[in-house]
Amino acid sequence: MKKISLVAFLFVLFIPALAFAADGQQAVWQVILQHLMEIVVALGVPVLLILLKTYLKKKGIEADMGTLNELLSKAVGFAEQMGKKALKDGAEQTDNAQKLDWALSKGRELAEANKLDQWVVDKLESLIEAKLGEQNGK
Asked: Model pTM?
């Protein structure tokens, strides 16, 4: 993204040099061209970046932290609910390894439903492990 912004900046910076004729005088069409290019670049680059980010999210290549936090909360909440349900049914208190297995399987299921890329799933799994480890430390 930074490379695209840098290229756009350099393009806008050097547009005025293109608008000058060889003798240093500008024709009307060159002035109009200069302003049109500045407007197109100023409006076009942000729109293209937003469209690119949306496309990457849709393909599962990029996931924002909001999505990861939502999936993390759902997976850990699911594991906690399963532990409480087992306790209500008369079973022994669920050990941490079992809760981790439940949370990881639910996290994978949610990630697959959201069509997330594998590296995002790996990140989600590490966040789940950290969250459950944090809760167990309390």
From this structure: 0.54
Other beta carbons less than 10 A from residue 2's beta carbon: 6
Q: Is 60 exposed, middle or buried (0-12, 13-18, 19+ CB in 10 A)?
A: middle
Mind giving me the DSSP string for the chain?
Answer: -HHHHHHHHHHHHHHHHHHS-TTS---HHHHHHHHHHHHHHHHHHHHHHHHHHHHHHHHTS---HHHHHHHHHHHHHHHHHHHHHHHHTTPPPPPHHHHHHHHHHHHHHHHHHTT--HHHHHHHHHHHHHHHHHHHH-
Q: What is the pLDDT of residue 2?
A: 59
**pLDDT at residue 97, as a whole number:** 81
pLDDT tens digits for 14-62?
Answer: 666 665 655 666 677 777 888 888 888 888 888 888 888 888 777 766 6
Is residue 103 scored above 80 in pLDDT? Answer: yes
The residue assigned the tokens 């990861």 is 68
